[in-house]
Amino acid sequence: MAQDPMQHTGRETTQDVVVELQDAILTITLNRPAKKNALTDPMYGLLADAIERAESDPDVRVVLLRAEGDLFSAGNDIADFSRLAEQIAGHTAGGGAGQSADQAATGTVAAEPGGPASAITGQMNVWRFLHALAACTTPVVAAVQGKAVGVGTTMLLHADYVVLAEGAQLITPFVDLALVPEAASTLLLTQRIGHVRAFAMFALAEPLAAEDAVATGLANRVVPAESLLDTARQVAGELAAKPAGSLTATKHLMRNAEALAPVIDREIAVFTERLAGPEAREAFAAFAERRSPDFSPFS
């Protein structure tokens, strides 16, 4: 049996994700700066492993989420999206169980959980990561520089203390990719900043500047870029020194993880439907061809 890379303390790396436990702080680093820390399915798997470890390992008292390079994350790797869309479309074209004639003809899939594409999407590590993060009772500190795009922003809704570098931006261009938001962000972002601001971020991809993120309650503070990691580590250290039982119990009382899980599942179902549709295929093709997408043929 292969060794579990997360079963002991110390520094672990699989090139794109680095996990290190020191002084009761589990630091998780996105380490794909050459690709703007775009997240792939294997990276999501490692992130999920790390968060699950934080919940089960008594030596972990705080999680620190950070990234190498000039920006936090460009979001999901578009190439991964394209491959998954092709898999789902192929399943649909093959007449997946439960697929209607109209769905087979248009290349869409049933959106309900357990639908014809569920066997494919159920294997995606991103959903395991998002569920683990939403249910995590260990305090999570995030250090964010540059742009946090898509899931790079929505994962921050599950952090407990967010430090932004000067010039950081939060961007959620889901509609531009013909998709829908995830990570229970349709609920959480709306609760935090209100419907009209959340809608503008989702539908128009309006970026939220670091100072505005603090003003609207999405982040705690803005610091110079050179102070970002030290500040986040200081906060994590302060939290690690608190009584762990009281701290995790407080977080558990503040967050209703049981209520978030069905929201995430509903988003996953609609996300899957959109991912396999013609609008998303046009968005991904336009991205690959470095052109503007043309959604006019689709109703």
UniProtKB/TrEMBL annotation:
Subcellular location(s) of the protein: Peroxisome
Entry superkingdom: Bacteria
Pfam families: ECH_1
InterPro entries: ClpP/crotonase-like_dom_sf (IPR029045), ECH/Chromodomain_protein (IPR051053), Enoyl-CoA_hydra/iso (IPR001753), Enoyl-CoA_hydra_C (IPR014748)
UniProt keyword list: Isomerase, Peroxisome
Gene3D superfamilies according to UniProt: 2-enoyl-CoA Hydratase, Chain A, domain 1, Lyase 2-enoyl-coa Hydratase, Chain A, domain 2
Primary residence: other
Recorded family membership: Belongs to the enoyl-CoA hydratase/isomerase family.
Protein name in the entry: Enoyl-CoA hydratase-related protein
Lineage: Bacteria, Bacillati, Actinomycetota, Actinomycetes, Micrococcales
